[in-house]
Design a protein that fits this description.
Bound molecules: ligand 6R9
Strand content: 15-25%
Largest sheet: 7 strands, mixed
CATH topology of one domain: GMP Synthetase, Chain A, domain 3
Enzyme class: ligase
Radius of gyration: 24 Å
Helix content: 25-40%
Strand order of the largest sheet: 5-4-17-16-18-19-20
Oligomer: single chain
Organism: Marisediminicola antarctica
InterPro entries: Ac_CoA_lig, ACAS_N, AMP-bd_C, AMP-bd_C_sf, AMP-binding_CS, AMP-dep_synth/lig_dom, ANL_N_sf
Family: Belongs to the ATP-dependent AMP-binding enzyme family.
CATH architecture of one domain: 2-Layer Sandwich
Catalytic activity: acetate + ATP + CoA = acetyl-CoA + AMP + diphosphate
């Protein structure tokens, strides 16, 4: 991680206590910590009942009789979309803006809660007319346009299950996710705007569905890019035509609290992405509660903006479900931060008077690089709370964020969580916590975190260890789609024999003497590129699927801008090696990975080598390759089968 070495972190002395002004109006207070410490389950039951509308109240908060399969609020009944829409309208807030949408080319739309509710009702009726019902899977592959939110909520409203696939993923990735989830319907767009151009989406869907039997019966296409698309009669339908003829009335039915809400694919340690399953009542409780407390949301006056794409968990929890369950007004932006000019984000904050802003360290670092002159050219005085997510934020970026974007006063909350945890787990609370740059700080009320050593016993400061969640939590994943064994093995078996059923997060961490937690990055083969998760195995298997490649090893190397960068070491097949220059081979392989997975996975560097460092049992020693890629002295090579390999590789790279 950039400058987040444990040594530099331990010398971080800056402290930022809350101001009296902030504390006097803050949503959170010491009282919620006290409440949760006295009665953890009672606290969550209380959050569920005060923040959400239950069609039928629950009698049991948590059923943990069959770990790791948890049930929260199991006999309660709820409709997630009703909670995000209808009830705000019924409470007299129909005229409040739900979404200020800003298209990349400069077009914009403001949509009220009343309008959004009608759109979702129409879309729900369209889904029903296409034969989608409770439990059916719907794949969503859309740009950041309001229809993405409408589509997700319409699926939720009828008790079906969405799987959103990030628009940057390739046709191949789309196909494997559609197949794994057995989706019956795909909702896409002709194209979307990115970096001043229209990028096509419908074509990738056509590619994913071409030439094979698929569970997909229909493709609904939103018109956005106005680019030319191919059309399969009978299968494809225009979203705007279907919605226009659909009934604007739809009554939300109550579903069980554990009704599946969505599957979201994320990278794990193997080549095959995992379909993380989330359900309804517990998930909505924790996203609503954290969104309110961690961001100090005052829905009647705040304008909130989370820059994440809805294709990631942050977009699910803190663009769609959290803010809408809380009746917030938010900004949704289609494009990139620097189009058409490097101040685009700050211009949007100025235009809408954004008061709460949530983004990733990689973005902050790229703005730091451009310089403070750009944000200084805009009025950012509306900002009062800043959030960070996706990877550790180095103290320098934290302080810059607070000073330059937050006017030297806005609290910065560093929020640690994962696709699997569904909602924020570790973070300071603005108005309560004395903030410490670089530390994610403390578990939120109602969450139990421990740092354990390899032997399953608690590690004391200043030693580092493995981060575990020791008690079930409402928004926890309920499984890996179609693979209960992998669910058990990946997350729950690590400490089972040693200290009971605890959730192993895959992150290393350290606690300081104040009890504040410092995240140290992944301890497995998962990389973090600009806050996006990618697995080394996934990229390696994409590389070896190319005809010229014999073997490949991928590492995440520290990178100033993106946190980590993908670096690949590739052995070519000897017959193929001579057919092109090294530069040609590298260029070919970089674009091959982008086609197989998506542009985010494209290796920054590829080194063509003759050997890879392996142990006697044949395991590639990525640790040594990482030393090479990061330009470090090479570590212990004694377990290598052939100890001269590293010398050959380093010579080759000179
Ligand atoms: C929400 C999200 C999860 C992984 C996680 C960790 C890293 C996320 C972090 C952080 C340090 C933070 N991570 N937030 N590390 N400080 N505030 O990013 O989910 O895409 O599943 O990634 O990201 O390594 O394990 P996801």
């Amino acid at each position: 991680m950039p400058s987040n070495s444990i040594d530099s972190l331990l010398h971080e002395e800056r402290r930022f206590p809350p101001s009296e002004n902030f504390t006097s109006q803050a949503i959170a207070s010491q009282a919620i910590y006290d409440e949760a410490a006295t009665d953890r389950l009672g606290f969550w039951a209380n959050q569920a009942r005060t923040l959400l509308h239950w069609h039928k109240d629950f009698s049991e908060t948590l059923d943990w009789s069959n770990p790791p399969f948890a049930k929260w609020f199991a006999d309660g009944k709820i409709n997630v979309a009703y909670n995000c829409l209808d009830r705000h309208v019924q409470a007299g807030n129909g005229d409040r803006v739900a979404i200020h949408w800003e298209g990349e080319p400069g077009d914009s739309r403001s949509i009220t809660y009343a309008e959004l509710t009608v759109e979702v009702k129409r879309a729900a009726n369209v889904l029903l007319s296409l034969g989608i019902g409770q439990g059916d899977r719907v794949a969503i592959y859309l740009p950041m346009i309001p229809e993405a939110v409408v589509a997700m909520l319409a699926v939720a409203r009828i008790g079906a299950v969405h799987t959103v696939i990030f628009g940057g993923f390739s046709s191949e990735s789309l196909r494997s996710r559609i197949d794994d989830a057995s989706a019956k319907l795909v909702i896409t767009a002709d194209g979307g705007w990115r970096k001043g151009k229209v990028f096509p989406l419908k074509g990738a869907v056509d590619g994913a569905l071409a030439g094979k039997k698929s569970t997909v019966g229909n493709v609904l296409v939103v018109r956005r890019g106005e680019n030319v698309v191919d059309w399969v009669d009978g299968r494809d339908r225009w979203w705007h035509e279907e919605l226009a003829s659909a009934d604007a009335e739809h009554e939300a039915e109550a579903f069980e609290a554990e009704n599946p809400l969505f599957i979201l694919y994320t990278s794990g340690t193997t080549g095959k992405p995992k379909g993380i399953l989330h359900t309804s009542g517990g998930y909505l409780t924790q996203v609503a509660s954290t969104h309110k407390n961690v961001f100090d949301l005052h829905p009647e006056s705040d304008v909130y903006w989370c820059t994440a794409d809805v294709g990631w968990i942050t977009g699910h929890s803190y663009v769609v479900y959290g803010p809408l369950a809380n009746g917030a007004t938010q900004v949704l932006y289609e494009g990139t931060p620097d189009t058409p000019h490097p101040g685009r984000w700050w211009e949007i904050i100025q235009k809408y008077g954004v008061s709460i802003f949530y983004t990733a360290p990689t973005a902050i670092r790229s703005f730091m690089k451009i310089g403070r002159e750009v944000p200084n050219g805009f009025d950012l005085t509306s900002l009062r709370v800043l959030g960070s997510v996706g990877e550790p934020i180095n103290p320098e970026a934290w302080v810059w964020y607070r000073d330059i974007i937050g006017g030297g006063t806005a609290p910065v909350v560093d929020t640690w969580w994962q696709t699997e945890t569904g909602a924020i787990m570790i973070s300071g609370l603005p108005g309560v916590t004395t903030l410490k740059p670089g530390s994610a700080q403390v578990p939120i009320p109602g969450i139990k975190i421990d740092i354990l050593g390899e032997d399953g016993t608690r590690v004391d400061p200043p030693n580092g260890g493995l981060l575990v969640v020791s008690e079930p939590w409402p928004s926890m994943l309920r499984g890996i789609w179609g693979d209960p064994e992998r669910f058990q093995e990946t997350y729950w078996d690590r400490f089972k024999a040693l200290s009971g059923t605890k959730y192993f997060a895959g992150d290393g961490a350290h606690v300081d003497a104040d009890g504040d937690i410092w995240l140290l990055g992944r301890v497995d083969d998962v990389m973090n590129i600009s806050g996006h998760r990618l697995s080394t195995a996934e990229i390696e298997s994409a590389l070896v699927s190319h005809r010229i490649v014999a073997e490949a090893a991928v590492v995440g190397a520290a990178d100033e801008a993106t946190g980590q960068a993908v670096v690949a070491f590739v052995i070519l097949k000897s017959k193929q090696a001579k057919k092109q220059t090294t530069d040609e081979a590298v260029a070919m392989l970089r674009s091959h990975v982008a086609e197989q997975i998506g542009a985010i996975a494209r290796p920054k560097q590829i080194f063509i080598v003759n050997e890879l460092p392996k142990t006697r049992s044949g395991k590639i020693m990525r640790r040594l390759l990482q030393d090479v890629a990061e330009g470090r002295e090479i570590g212990d090579t004694t377990t290598l089968a052939d100890t001269s390999v590293m010398q050959i590789i380093t010579d080759k790279m000179k």
